[in-house]
Amino acid sequence: MQELLLPAVTLPERATSEEVVEAFGTEPSITSVILVDEYQRPEGSLDRSRFLLSIAGRYGHALHGKKPALRLADPPRTVPRTTPAIAAMQVAGQDSARVYDDLVVTDEVGRCLGVVRVSDLMRAATGPYR
Questions:
Q1: Cβ proximity of 102 and 79 under 8 Å
Q2: What's the pTM value of the predicted model, to 2 decimals?
């Protein structure tokens, strides 16, 4: 997992939806924002596509803009940093609606170390193309 680890974009769990929109707007390659508590433990995960669709939908910004983004967050899909790629793939496949959501890699005490994109995980698990 270490070689696939990417820095996570994190915001405090009390961040507003507007702050998350701003985070997604700063870099188009960001696929998720992880909401963390004061100890950097993941409390919620916001997938770029689903979150921006809910904000861009009819009355979305009016309903959610100034309110906590945690309301729109999914539970984070966490894996310890020592998890083998195959086991991480099993975690990724547990919920078919969220199969491509980033996995949050945590340390021994549950703090967020970064994220692993499922597409990168699949590439690593299947080996190099020949």
A1: no
A2: 0.90
